[in-house]
Design goal:
By secondary structure, the chain is α/β, with parallel strands linked by helices. Helices cover 44% and strands 14% of the residues.
Length: 312
């Protein structure tokens, strides 16, 4: 049951960070971009290949941050507004998770596989203990990676994410209906998704004409399969880390998106309070803050990453 004090605190956070709606126009930091860093396909032994962008840090001993993206997007589309400033301080690695973009294609979508992919990539890149920054679904992957591989994760930065999805009756009804639909269409879904992936270009585009970022963004979106995403969301709906979240022992920062309508603010706060020693950072923005409100989100992300690095 939800603690009323937590609900009150969440409401206070929203009030503190202002009631005005913020502009959803692209900020100056990204509207003039005409390219993003290019990556390559990397084979994870015994698992498959995925699209990886590996940006060397400012010094050879700079900490390494793995960026884990949300559902219904790609690694680059989720994180590109943050890359320049993150890369001034850290080695930055981002990759497409399973059934997203140019990620691994498998017979089903399994969160344990997603978590193990993170460590497999760390092995290939020879990164012993990366810091994992996860956004929405990526935050779930990050939690699960730290739970399954506690000796391989240096720290967590959990952004706009949660520890469970089903609590209110509307949420339970949505996820149970979606799960039932996904179960009846699973074989067809993966077949259609595989067919779609076979038509993708070998590598994603990383440049576009001046003023036509929309073309690039739509290209990234076209790499996604709606059929596969329905299966992935059904799996996410069953996730609940509350039994083991208090046992995480890594330095953690939680970035709460205080205008979030997709994931309740009080649930983000509950998650933060379950993790021993977690520090809370407030981003007065909505669930798509990583791109649509990057001017608000990126400085908070940098502060959260710094707090984890300092503790590591």
């Amino acid at each position: 049951m939800t603690d009323p004090k937590l609900e009150l605190t969440a409401r206070d956070l929203n009030a503190t960070n202002g009631a005005r709606r913020r502009s959803r126009r692209l900020s100056a930091r990204i509207s003039r971009l005409t390219e993003v860093p290019a990556g390559s396909m990397v084979e994870l032994p015994g698992r498959g290949s995925t699209y990886v962008v590996d940006l060397p840090g400012p010094t050879p001993d700079a900490p390494t941050v793995f960026l884990l993206h949300g559902a219904a997007t790609t690694a680059m589309l989720n994180w590109f507004p943050s890359l320049k400033e993150l890369n001034e301080r850290y080695r930055v690695v981002l990759f497409d998770q399973r059934w997203h973009g140019h990620g691994i294609r498998s017979g089903n979508f399994d969160l344990d596989d997603c978590a193990d992919d993170v460590i497999a990539l760390a092995d290939v890149l020879e990164v012993p203990r990366p810091i994992l920054a996860g956004y929405s679904m990526g935050g779930i992957t990050a939690q699960l990676t730290a739970h399954r591989h506690p000796d391989r994760v240096g720290g967590l930065v959990l952004c706009a994410t949660t520890y469970r999805f089903q609590e209110k009756w509307r949420e339970r009804a949505f996820h149970r209906t979606l799960a039932a639909l996904a179960a009846t269409t699973a074989e067809f879904s993966w077949r259609r998704a595989a067919l779609k992936s076979s038509r993708l270009p070998e590598l994603p585009a990383n440049t576009w004409p001046v003023g036509r970022m929309d073309r690039w963004a739509m290209g990234e979106m076209r790499s996604l399969s709606g059929w596969a995403l329905a299966q992935a969301i059904a799996v996410l709906g069953r996730f609940d880390s509350s039994p083991w979240l208090p046992n995480l022992k890594v330095p953690t920062a939680v970035v709460i998106t205080t205008h979030d309508r997709a994931l309740p603010v009080y649930r983000q706060l509950e998650m933060a309070k379950m993790i021993p020693g977690a520090e809370i950072f407030l981003a007065p923005a909505g669930h798509a803050a990583c791109v649509l409100e990057a001017d608000v989100f990126v400085p908070v992300l940098l502060e959260a990453c710094r707090s984890v690095v300092d503790r590591v």
